[in-house]
Every structure is written in C-alpha cells, then in structure tokens.
Amino acid sequence: MKKNLSLSVVLMLVATNSLLFASDSNVVELENVMVNANKIEENIKDVPQSITVIDEEILEEKGIKNVNDAIKEVPNMITSGSNNGVQTSFRGLNLSMFTNNNPVVIYVDGVPYYDRYDFNPSLVNVKQIEILRGPQGTLYGKDAIGAVINIITKNPSNEWRGSVGAEYGNNNYMQSSFNTSGALIENKLFAG
After folding, report:
1. What topology is assigned to 42-154 in CATH?
2. Which pTM does this prediction carry?
3. pLDDT at 25
C-alpha cells in the first residue's frame, strides 16, 4: 500500500514537472490592439465594453468599402438603406419615428454625425473602425443607447501617400475614390 502511494506521488511529480517545462516553450504573445472606446487610447483588454475592432488589414482583406459593409461584420447589428445612406438597427433598437434619432451614433475622429440618411462614407483613409455595442450615453451623448460606430482615420505624416479606386456594378452603379496625404511644410503643416 505504501509502495503504491509513494509510486503514485513520484509519477504525479514527474508528470507535473514535465507539464511545467512544456508550457514554457509554447508561450505565444498576442499583439496589442489599441482602441479609443473611452476617448483615450488604451489596450482592448482593458476596455469593459463589448467592442468589435475592424482595422485596415481587415478592411482590405474583406473588401469593406463603406460603413454599410463594416456593419455587416458586427453581431446583432443590421443595416438598411442604399449606397447613399446608412440606417442601423442594433438589438431591435432602430430609428424612432417620433424623434428621428438613431440609437446608433456614428463618430469620425471624434465628430458626431447625426444625419444618417445621406451618410455612408468611403473608408479609403481609415485606420480602424471601433463598434461599441450597448448603451454608451455617458461618453457619447443621449442618442447612443444602442451602439457607437467610431471611425478613426489615418494621421498624415511627412511622407506622401495616396490611393485611387474605381468600382462599377449592377444598375449602372459607379463609384470612384481618391485619397492623398502628406506634409505641406515638413513637421508643421499636413494635408489629408
């Protein structure tokens, strides 16, 4: 009996020791995703809200060209309308016929856009899109009872960069885009 017990203890110690060594060699460090959900830049792991981040790699990879396309990537969020404007619904909350307020507020670089009928901007110069799900009224105002779509554009730099795009589709759908940014006066005045 004593022999079996001591053999079991020795085997457990050997097994745990080998597991400890195995776990050290397989450590994978995830990249940090920085968001502005609380109006300050912080790591996404430290943000208490439910948030979806679509960065420029995902925009390019999935061919997301406008806010309508980006909303389709978010759980429980529905978009309606045409290429001219976005009407969003989140968890059953949609445009109020009495107040004309949408429960989903769209911000571009900290500036709110309240007219969602004619607002579906191109995402050509976008760094990332943050979609904060759930009520956000304390930071984003009274209309943000459903969600907030926070669009963050790329900062211009001293190097000139740009892009040109064109699309053609059914029913004579045509869209073109042009974007450029860079320094007009190095380190002082930027365009884009």
Report:
1. Ferric Hydroxamate Uptake Protein; Chain A, domain 1 (2.170.130)
2. 0.68
3. 62
